[in-house]
Amino acid sequence: MSLSLQALTPENAHFCLQIEKFLENELLCNLHGKKLILACSAGVDSSALILFCRVMQSRWRIEPIAAHLDHRLRSESAEEAGAAADLCHWAGIPCFLGSSGVKRYAEARGLGIEEAGRRLRYRYLKGIRKKNAADLILTGHHLNDLAEDSLMRQMRGTGWPSLAGMKAWDHEQRLLRPFLLTPKAKLIRFVRSSGTTWQEDRSNQDLSFTRNRIRQLILPRFLEENPNYLECVAQLWRQAGSDADYWRQKLARLQRLEQNAGGWVLVPASALKRLQPAVRQRWYRDILNRLGPGQIRAASLFGLDRAWTQQSTGKTFQFPGHKTARIKAGGIVFQRQPLTVRNGQFDQK
Fold it and tell me: Count of domains in the chain?
């Protein structure tokens, strides 16, 4: 495959232009003239990302830079790092290679290996972006990943609209997922047509990880029952985006009623009393999201609102990310608790 849009087969040209349409028409994201950091493993999704950005480089006048982080958890990881570097060299894209001590990091913070690896990977990518004064970070997440993420959120009890899955464009993190509504099968065809190969991560077969069980066992059953299930996931994601746009405008007006200082936010009782429960719960979620990361369960929001309506003064609710909500006579106080380190562990004050 020639690495230019004009030389592509009609199928591959359509593949690239459909992604461009998704970015510009749905995400309103213009990449022209941008410097981009490409998250690069040796897998098919990141290989497709490298090739796609190389194809679009002259059309968009972008400057792509790849970054690969080796967690050194498997004997073949060094080989995968080399394969990623070779692909980038063939495509004419600079590539940064890094490594992490993910096991020590996970133990020090009481995290699972999967979550620790994810945090270190994004921290590394952010560092490369800042070092190179780049505009955005791009990852190769695709529609199958979105389906897995949505199923995982449903299992955890995540509420709407977060239930629909990860964002395609995260403005705060400067993170873009251009393939998010593209099925993995299309990425495979695109990479194969280039004549390049990719590495399969053998840890993806380890069923001790929840995501792998969803990928290997659960998602295939959904696709057996409904071969169009991935399209349903995409439509659910689009619906969530439309809802989020509506609520973003409504919540912007409610935010003006908040009182905040020193890391806490007070929602006055006078404002809460005149709102419908659905609006109150959206407001709670919005405040908690602004206080920091952490998926919020719908049951926790229902419980908080029930405690408010019953005037359970003094009752405190804990949320992921060391965030709390306390019922008071004057309203509800939301706060993110500071952390201290004791005996190598992080504790909440």
Answer: 2
298 and 215 co-located in one domain? no
Own/partner pairs, 251-257, CB within 8 angstroms, 24+ separation:
251/282, 251/283, 251/286, 254/279, 254/283, 254/286, 255/286
Same domain, yes or no: 207 and 263:
no
CATH of the domain at 291: 3.30.465
**By C-alpha distance, which of 36, 109, 106 is closest to 73?**
106
pLDDT band at 82; cut points 50, 70, 90: very high
- Domain range spanning residue 313? 259-340
Task: Note the pTM of the prediction, 2 decimals.
Answer: 0.86
pLDDT digits (tens, 9 = 90+) for 104-149: 999 998 888 888 999 999 999 999 999 999 999 999 999 999 999 9
Residues 288 and 211 in one domain: no
% of the chain beyond a pLDDT of 70: 96
